[in-house]
Input
Amino acid sequence: MTSLNTIGRSLLRDDADIPASTFRASGHAPSDARWLKTLRGVQPGLVLSWSIMAVVVLWALFPQWFTSYSATVGVARQQLRAPSAEHWLGTDVLGRDLLARIIYGAGNSLSGALVAVGVGLVVGTTLGIIAGSARGRIDSAIMRGVDVLLSIPQLLLSLSIVILLGFGIVNAAIAVGITSIASFARLARSEVVRVRASDYVEAAFGSGGTFSRVLLRHILPNSLTSVIAFAALQLGWAILTISTLGFLGYGAPPPTPEWGLLIAEGRNYLARAWWLTMVPGIVVIVVVLSANRISQSFGKAKA
Amino acid sequence: MTTAINIKPASADVANLPVLEIGNLAVGYRGNEGFQRVVHDVSLLVRPGEVVALVGESGSGKTTTAQAVIGLLAENGRLEAGTVRLNGTDIVGWSQKQLDAIRGSKISLIPQDPTTSLNPVKTIGAQVAEVLQIHRKGSRAEIDARVIELLTRVGLSQPELRARQYPHELSGGMRQRVLIAIAIALRPALIIADEPTSALDVTVQKRILDLIDELRREYGTAVLLVTHDLGVAADRANHIVVLKGGRIQEQGATAEVLAKPRSDYTRKLLADAPSLGKTRSVPRSVSPRIDRRGDAIVVENLVQDFAIGGRRDAFRAVDGVSFTVQRGATHAIVGESGSGKTTTARSIVGFQKPTAGRILVDGIDVTTLRRESLRWFRKTIQLVYQNPFASLDPRQTIFQIVEEPLLNFDPLPREDRARKVQAILDRVGLPSSVLARKPHALSGGQRQRVAIARALVLDPQVLVLDEAVSALDVTVQAQILALLDELQQALGLTYLFISHDLAVVRQISDTVSVLHNGRQVDGGPVEDVFQRPGSAYTRELISAIPGQHNVNLN
Output
């Protein structure tokens, strides 16, 4: 073996062209210099988006930390109060504190969005992977089904599913999730097909890999990155769609604080109490924009 | 072409005022790690009617220099210092609008990749007419007539038909001719040809370079030829500028640079270029491990059909190819794109079932193998791909990549695997520091070493090298070829070497098959084929190898 090793060593000449950056990355730079570099790379918009999402997640997990008011029980004689020191965002027609309702509503909206994205991600990606790796008739059958799903307007489809499943926040979330299956399946399939055509997958088969092993080791890890980035994008979309269903009365039943429902309830008092519709509306917009900004940064990191 | 233009001081002759004069040019790019200068202090002259070749490997700054001249640097690029004088006028700092007026009319560009440089949704005629319309040359009828004239001039058959066709209906060579027609439409004083033939087959390359040469002589246009191929530069240029790492290593008249290179780097380039360097005039020394008794590969009457778009008629990619390869020998399959050489290789490795014929590898009939037996057959034969950037999984570390084949068969204990991976990396000349890295942190040459290590880790008998050195720079290519030679001597490997590059083939192989449109037109020991080509096509291929003109002169 030793004689063979010297052959290798004698041929080390092209090591000079290792990109310089790899040395820089592995070298021990002074820690404060690295800090400066990290600071310079910070994007204010992205930091803001992450902070907003963090606050909303905290609202969802520990609403009692942020408000002492109840979200469902109103106070008599305090109906439709304008924003004040006592009620920061005013009160609604039953005297409930609007801020409390928004904070408690975060849990419903976020968990709904997570369920919706989860359904789309799991079912859609599985279908896409099966279609992309099986090819042939199975592929055609699955993808034609996906085409049918895509041909129905998404809101119409989710309304129909909610009616089939019955009203409620979970059913609304599932309905929204089902409508996103098609997009997930398409993306996952195209990624699987792309990765399957690559040289390294063929090389993996060529070195004796079985189908399942190549699928797990090469095809899935390389195709799922963009699916995950897409899931982050879908999160914002799901919050918006669930609020839409809530607004139309297909989501959470009335006393439940849910953002879409808050906007719908405030609609009748738009002239007297604008904050009842405006503030929840702005909250939804800000959260959706933050989710999109974060998912965009995932997509960039991948590229 | 044969008489090199003498280089005189610029002031001596007013008529000989340089078309292009680059003085102390410095260009840099803004990146993640700050501003990085890639072209340092480059000065050169291009006189009327002269061809100046800018030669260098990837990353040498040759394309950046050319782009800086025509004002087409990438968005993060900046021309930091220096002058670019076009017919005596400094155009550095000109606005895009000012540059638009001279682009096409005074300077024009022949881009590298003819497949992506034409607009797929416009006809050829419309694209050639565009440059004439932009610079307002004549009425519509005049422009139409001029388009046909240009297409005829660049040697396209049936120019009226071509003008109505779309780019996808034309071959690569024809598209490159269209791009040349666009470049010469306004008879510019200077044409910048950025690797104009690197994406083309050798015989097409020769015809395209001949055409550029002919047009240059006819119009008196100067050409700045950017190329990585020293052979092309040696054949075509009056003056050679050698770049490395953004600095000029050497420049001078072609014959002088080739005969008496002053810099070490140029000497190394000359030695490593297969077409110029030590072409083996005697047959390859037979390595002691060659076992002349057995044949490692036997291919008999291989036929491979592919169905076209679901129709019943099929396209015959390989038509009756036969050859045998002795154990420990190197057999080359040579041909241009579409010749069926890669299809043949893939049938031998077992990636596709041949339509007819027999393939024996190490005594095993490949055509009869199914699933599990095919999987075990992989231990006998391994394929190394052309592009080491695509054949390694970007998410795996080098250790995982090389270890993976071992996991597919008889799992060894972890320590044994690690030892084996380490040994094989040593053998292909990679330091153990690369084990934890991912492919993107390695250079092209190192990646190809990893790919070879992955192929060798199963101790195969036969290695199929599908254009395995074609994507590498000449100096790296020479190192990989030397490595392959060493490995063959040490391990008694049999190589099947697929290549379009006859110069490389002559250097490393014992026997050769020449394929043309799926048929085998020539074959036998490599020197026999080179000395006494058996077909007109082989002769054409051999004469198209660049770098022969000046070598013969010397």
Q: What stands out?
A: Residues 239 and 256 of chain B are 9 Å apart (CA to CA). Chain B touches chain A through 48 residues (CB under 8 Å).
